[in-house]
Amino acid sequence: MKSRGINDLYLPKGVASHVKNMLFCVLFTPIWGLIIGAEINSNFLLSTFLIMFIAMEVIYLVSKKFFIFKFNFAPKDYIPGKITRIYLFRLILFYILSIAIITLIFALFVVIFHLIRGFGFPDFLWLVNELKRSVITTSIAFLFITPVFFFIPWQQSMKREFELREQNLIFQNETLKNQVNPHFLFNSLNTLSSLVNTEVAVAGQFIAKLSVIYRYILDNSSKLEVPLNEEIDFIRDYYYLHQIRNEGKIKLEIDINDYGNSYKIIPISLQLLIENAIKHNMATQDKPLVINVYLEEHNIVVKNNIQKMATQVVSTKIGLKNLNERVRLVTGKEIIVTEYEDNFRVKVPLIL
Predict the structure, then answer these.
(1) Which CATH class is domain 199-349?
(2) Contact, 283 vs 250, CB < 8 A?
(3) Which of 120, 121, 253, 324 has its CA 20 to 30 A from that of 195?
(4) Is the pLDDT of residue 67 over 60?
């Protein structure tokens, strides 16, 4: 088998788990002798090591067999940093199971030791007292080894969860970008082709704004957050292109005060909401589509009047779903979508 990284001692995964158990027992055996004040000699070290190692191996194999522990207490829907009832239940169940296994192994060793030494089967009351002591000492021992069996795997679980969230977020950013860019580029090139032959000066401005927009998309699509003022500048440039294409049929009104500069936002999020408003509503010079962007507490709101088309565009709502997931993963909150009789609003949480 292929060797692994330093976390698995560059050994195959199955072998590394047993070797790490052995190394832990070798290191902890003399420490345990000092803790309980025992006479540290070869008999104590060997017997304690065997009891600890066999107990750990049995606990590991039993928990792996019955899916009780697997060195990961967290259920599938576990949120890092949140200790739920099922989380505590699994932890307590593991401790009870472990103490029971260690006590049984200790009793077995005591019986075997007495038989080998010719003392016969130990007295029942004496054995019960020894088992009580074993339960007490094992419980104390678990207080010391909890960081090994609980906190370290817990931190690793949290790290994996956050890495998964980040990878998922990047993937969704890429998905959203791949959905938006071809459609937007196709429409922009169509507009540009008509401007080149009729309005050369305007075509030059159009190309300049288009390059700025795509530079912003390329620079920020993989980021988790950008300053709000940069996203606002981006949608102003994006709106400029639509102004040329729609000849004043769309109005964008932005009401963001200086306090808004202290916020951050998911990149390429407002553009999606503005594009949705344009895509699903009719816009004429007599009845323009009005899009308002303003702050409301720690959120930014994109609002537009509803002017339904005669032939409605089928909405898959993939864009809003992706945006909501991106916002949820980064901020822990969700976007709020509200549709009234005459207007449609989307409230996006900002990042402080």
Answers:
(1) alpha beta
(2) yes
(3) 253
(4) no
